[in-house]
Specification:
- The complex is a heterodimer of chains A (342) and B (267).
- By secondary structure, chain A is mostly helical.
- Chain A has helices spanning 6-24, 32-42, 54-89, 101-114, 126-146, 154-178, 183-190, 200-217, 220-226, 230-235, 240-262, 268-280, 284-308, 317-337.
- Chain A has one domain: ABC transporter involved in vitamin B12 uptake, BtuC (Orthogonal Bundle), CATH 1.10.3470.
- Chain A contains 14 helices and no strands.
- Chain B is an alpha/beta fold and 267 residues long.
- Chain B has two domains: 2-81 and 161-264, 3-Layer(aba) Sandwich (Rossmann fold); 92-160, no CATH class.
- Chain B has nine helices and twelve strands.
- A six-stranded mixed sheet of chain B has the order 6-7-8-3-9-10, with helices on both faces.
- In chain B, a hairpin with a 2-residue loop joins strand 4 and strand 5 (68-69).
- In chain B, helix 4 (117-129) crosses helix 5.
- The longest helix of chain B has 18 residues, at 175-192.
- The relative contact order of chain B is 0.16.
- Classes of the chains: A mainly alpha (342), B alpha/beta (267).
- Chain A binds chain B through residues 1, 218-222, 224-225, 227-229, 231-232, 234-240, 277, 281-283, 285, 341-342, and chain B through 50, 53-55, 74-80, 83-84, 86, 90-96, 99, 103-104, 106-107, 109, 111-113, 155, 159.
């Protein structure tokens, strides 16, 4: 079953499609054929006769590609951490946004910006680091608030998530009001719109996303065993408490990296693992990697809509994902209530 | 061989007014032997299984398997010595039977859980032994209670341990599935020389299948020995607070317990 490659091929194909569209679309439309030739031209050992406007290459390298890669990393991180939270909590509605982790990470990131940490030695790295601290504190808080005995009921998880999220968002807004920076851009960031462009933010989050995703990708078996519950996991030889703590830290690291420069984007971590589960089953050794690929694809498409629907105006991508995600959330809530397949 | 020595366990936080969940419990089970723990609701039967399996912290006392004290072992090492068949509730419905049983190999696998051909073989053999091979590709959620219980038994066998613990494995099963499951446990204990510690609610099943019985009351062992020695009218009547008759089984002579609580006699 695990050695079935078709789901991966389907996902990689969709991802490639979304990547090309994402780089091609924008105020200046670059035809996909030209785009591929320009990209091929950039490869070592390939020299094509340039028959495209000179500024195309610059647009691609300086504007489109870094934006697309950042969105890809963000979506992949949200998909992977969403699947992991759902597995650790054994709860179909766990999503980095709904359980408040994304807001906590956002608070950390805004705090770092408000006190001008990016001007310190560590530079832009401070933002994902502060977001990670915020995310970890949030997940600890939400988990301890929502826990009833040894179980984690959906209602208390969502309620605790909403409450902590509201608190973190209020603090974030407060910090933004107090700072002298341009408020509209900050709000745009909060709703999921990148405020920095160019390669700098990509390089600043890349190590965090990669580390987080590698940790999550390696944890499929542990997540599978955890589905039997903490007690049986211990009896099967898995030190459940330690493993859960490890997974929560890894997922929070991944979420924080996603939030650091792309803002608080909801529902990707909810929708994508659900669709993967419906299509290709519950084995976390496959669910996690497919959710990572699917998360990247889904956010690239949402971002494409956000940039093109009201062009030249750009809608924060978080609005697009929420418009699609909130109804989906309600649908999942109904299914979860009926215990239809969880 | 499983040895439990003066085991004491508290309820959650230590609370002198509530006493102990288990107090100075000592039991031993030889290879090939089935020890059945009986007792009224709340006596601490499931607590005993959970504490021995490492799922609950222990206040004092020791648990050892073949002379090896378990208290200093990692959960991994412990799970190679002692496997648990829990009650068939809350099984993740979406995994296949084979996937579920293969997870019994967890104590032998690394973090990535890459199962080798040896692990696959052991899992298949466990399915075979529990007569669940034809269910291998079915999803657990589609199975009946009796089938799920056998899948959990197969998963425990895949752990390849000398000791097997079962927590009320027959609770939700009908008469046929009760006896087929317990016959299976008996056969496995004999063939694989497993030391089996099993909690049962049903006194007659305990009488039929146990080599020895331990009667647990309010966290203490009230009596232990052969079914004939432990399952007496006097003890059972006082412990369960209902008059009972004990008569010999027509075929085996083992004690049969008939409650006599009609007409409010036990109130």
């Amino acid at each position: 079953m695990v050695h079935n490659f078709r789901p991966y091929l389907v996902n990689l194909f969709c991802l490639a499609f979304a990547l090309i569209l994402s780089v091609a679309a924008g105020p200046v439309l670059i035809p996909p054929g030209t785009l591929l030739r320009i990209l091929a031209h950039g490869l070592p050992g390939v020299a094509l006769q340039p028959d495209w406007p000179e500024n195309f290459a610059t647009i691609i390298q300086q504007v489109r590609l870094p934006h697309t890669v950042l969105i890809l990393l963000t979506g992949a991180a949200l998909g992977g951490s969403g699947a992991t939270y759902q597995g650790v909590f054994r709860n179909p509605l766990a999503d980095p946004y709904l359980i408040g982790v994304a807001s906590g990470a956002g608070l950390g990131a805004v705090f770092a910006m408000a006190v001008h940490w990016p001007n310190s030695m560590l530079g832009l790295y401070t933002i994902p680091i502060a977001a990670f601290v915020g995310a970890t504190l949030t997940i600890i808080l939400v988990y301890s608030l929502a826990r009833v005995g040894s179980s984690l009921p959906t209602t208390t998880l969502i309620l605790a998530g909403v409450a902590v999220s509201a608190f973190a968002s209020s603090l974030t807004s407060f910090l933004m009001l107090r700072s002298n920076q341009e408020l509209r851009r900050a709000i745009g960031w909060l709703m999921g719109g990148s405020i920095l462009s160019g390669w700098e933010p990509v390089f600043a989050v890349l190590p965090f996303v990669l580390l987080g995703l590698i940790l999550l990708l390696s944890s499929g078996h542990a997540l599978n065993v955890l589905q039997f519950g903490e007690e049986q996991a211990v009896q099967l030889g898995l030190p459940a408490e330690r493993v859960k703590a490890f997974l929560l830290v890894a997922a929070s690291l991944t979420t924080a990296a996603a939030v650091a420069f792309s803002g608080v984007i909801g529902f990707i971590g909810l929708i994508v693992p659900h669709l993967v589960r419906l299509l290709w089953g519950h084995d976390y050794r496959r669910l996690v990697p497919l959710s990572i690929l699917g998360g990247g694809t889904a956010l690239l498409l949402a971002d494409l809509l956000a940039r093109t629907v009201l062009a030249p105006q750009v809608i924060p991508v978080g609005i697009v994902t929420a418009l699609a995600g909130a109804p989906f959330f309600l649908w999942v809530l109904r299914r979860a209530k009926n215990q239809a397949y969880w | 061989m499983l040895e439990i020595n003066s085991l004491s366990v508290t309820y959650g936080k230590p609370d002198p007014s509530r006493g102990l969940a288990l107090e100075q419990v000592s039991l031993s089970v030889q290879p090939g032997e089935i020890l059945v723990v009986i007792g009224p609701n709340g006596a601490g039967k499931s607590t005993l299984i959970r504490a021995v399996s490492g799922a609950l912290p222990v206040l004092s006392g020791s648990i050892s398997v073949n002379g090896m004290d378990l208290s200093h072992l990692s959960s991994n090492q412990r799970a190679r010595r002692l496997a648990v068949v829990p009650q068939a509730r809350n099984m993740p419905a979406a995994f296949t039977v084979f996937q579920s049983v293969l997870m019994g190999r967890t104590p032998y696998l690394g973090w990535l859980g890459q199962a080798g051909s040896q692990d696959q073989r052991v899992a298949l053999r466990s399915l075979e032994q529990t007569l669940t091979l034809e269910l291998a590709e079915r999803r657990v959620g589609e199975l009946s209670g009796g089938e799920q219980q056998r899948v959990l038994l197969a998963r425990a066998l895949a752990q390849d341990t000398p000791v097997l613990l079962l927590d009320e494995p027959t609770t939700h099963l009908d008469l046929q599935h009760q006896s087929s499951l317990l016959n299976l446990v008996r056969k496995l204990a004999n063939e694989k020389k497993l030391a089996v510690l099993m909690v049962l609610h049903d006194l007659n099943l305990a009488s039929l299948y146990a080599d020895r019985v331990a009667l647990l009351v309010a966290g203490r062992i009230r009596a232990s020995g052969t079914p004939q020695e432990v399952l007496t009218e006097q003890d059972l009547s006082s412990v369960y607070n209902v008059p009972v008759h004990v008569v010999p089984h027509p075929d085996y002579g083992s004690p049969l317990i008939l409650p006599d609580g009609r007409f409010g006699a036990g109130l």
